[in-house]
Design a protein that fits this description.
Layout (H helix, E strand, L loop, with lengths): L32 E4 L6 H4 L1 H11 L6 E6 L5 H12 L3 E6 L6 H10 L8 E4 L18 E8 L10 E8 L5 H5 L1 E2 L1 E5 L3 H18 L12 E4 L2 E6 L6 H9 L24 E9 L2 H13 L2 E9 L6 H6 L9 E4 L2 H4 L2 E2 L2 E9 L2 E10 L5 H5 L3 E7 L1 H19 L3
Parallel strand pairs: 2-3, 3-4, 7-14, 11-12, 12-13
Antiparallel strand pairs: 1-8, 2-5, 5-6, 6-8, 9-10, 10-17, 11-15, 15-16, 16-17
Helix pairs in contact: 2-3, 3-4, 7-8
Length: 407
């Protein structure tokens, strides 16, 4: 699969200065923005996401609440920090998939118990099925963490921040730190978003514990300022295809994918679509990416796996030439070069919903697979912010550069 050359400008990382009247001690340790691990880096770089989540747990004060939903929780260190938090009076509530069997899982169950009417507990989704979704052979693939309040510091001191949401692509396993690229989007102070996630958590708890029946369709989306939360499973609609269809909306008299100002998209003002995705099997997503590239968007994809059950249909679509040359494909796979892309994000730089000069990120646990769409418990988070976008774009370039070394 061939890759197209892209002239990448150097990214100036913006740092917001403290007000002149504020001291460094007044600055909160928890701010909105992404955290990325680097599996090619040292231990600190590999564990960046795990460490961030651990600090948030350590900074949760007595009387606050922590809720997390995960596919796999294998970190004994984080399990220990969650137990300590419960011991100092934090409500710690954990939902994991039945595949999450580990020493860390056992530690949590033994310490917190499984009574979901208590302040702290662990709930395991039914064997062979997700919690909310009733489809067989599905999983609770979620990777989100909610904190009602935290300082985000190891000592628990500092300025507390409320309504913290962390939407990650990573499970808490050694493979996720040492072998794969992952991201975790941290959002602070957005009470509407925190409430939307908390409501979803309650739906997972209620169905997973058998209080209410599971579902085949959960078409819930919540706008929360610059953020938007999409939930799964979906039986009839594909939010990713709908998002890509919205990219197609033209701006004024310009053709689709055209009409952006200098500094947005390509040098000639065409929209750029970047995808860093662990796995793509949905033909409709592949087809829409091809159509957008053929219309003039620049589509750039870093991936680990393509196809699974469609006899190469996704590969055939993504490698078919377009009027602008074709989609740029870059593979990162641990079986080939030592690391995999485990992120699940989409970046749009340019036209969206009939407006030019946009920078938008969609990230979460949701892979572009059939099971993630119609079967699994999943969450997809949109964030519309240029600084957040620029950080994700830099991470995309890092992943792409690692992939291109072996191509």
């Amino acid at each position: 699969m061939r890759a197209r050359t892209w002239l990448a400008a150097a990214l100036a990382v913006a740092v917001t200065a403290l007000p002149a009247t504020a001291s460094a001690e007044d600055a909160p340790a928890v701010t909105t923005g992404p955290v990325f691990n680097d599996p090619t880096g040292d231990t600190t770089a590999q564990n960046a996401i795990l460490t961030k989540i651990g600090r948030l747990v350590q900074g949760a004060p007595a009387g606050s609440g922590i809720k997390l939903s995960l596919y796999l929780l294998h970190s004994q260190w984080l399990a220990g920090e969650l137990v300590k938090a419960a011991g100092r009076g934090v409500s710690v509530q954990v939902i994991v998939d039945s595949d999450s069997t580990s020493t860390a899982y056992t530690t949590l169950v033994n310490a917190l118990g499984t009574d979901t009417t208590a302040a702290s507990w662990v709930l395991t989704c039914p064997a062979g099925r997700a919690c909310l979704s009733q489809s067989a052979n599905t999983v609770n693939h979620n990777k989100f963490f909610l904190f009602s309040e935290t300082t985000g510091t190891a000592t628990g001191t500092g300025t507390p921040v409320r309504d913290v949401v962390v939407q990650a692509s990573a499970n808490l396993t050694e493979w996720d730190t040492k072998k794969s690229w992952n991201d975790a989007m941290v959002v602070t102070g957005n009470s509407a978003l925190h409430t939307a996630y908390a409501d979803y958590f309650e739906a997972l708890r209620a169905t997973g514990s058998g209080e209410i029946p599971p579902v085949t369709d959960h078409p819930v989306a919540t706008q929360a300022g610059v953020a938007k939360l999409y939930l799964f499973p979906r039986a009839t609609t594909d939010p990713v295809v709908n998002i890509l269809n919205t990219v197609d909306d033209p701006v004024g008299t310009h053709a689709a994918c055209h009409g952006n100002s200098t500094g947005y998209g390509t040098t000639d003002g065409r929209t750029v679509i970047r995808v860093a995705m662990h796995h793509i099997t949905r033909p409709a997503v592949a087809q829409k990416l091809w159509e957008l590239d053929n219309a003039g968007c620049y589509v750039d994809v870093v991936y680990s796996l393509l196809d699974e059950m469609y006899s190469g249909q996704v590969v055939d679509t993504l490698t078919t030439p377009t009027a602008y040359g074709g989609i740029a494909l870059h593979r990162l796979n641990a079986d080939v070069d030592g690391t995999s892309s485990h992120t699940k994000y989409l970046l749009v730089e340019g036209t969206y919903n009939g407006v030019a000069d946009q920078k938008i990120v969609w990230t979460g646990s949701h892979t572009y697979t059939r099971s993630a769409l119609v079967g699994n418990d999943e969450a997809l988070l949109k964030y519309h912010d240029s600084t957040v976008y620029d950080a994700y774009r830099l991470n995309f370039w890092h992943q792409r550069a690692a992939a291109d070394v072996i191509q």
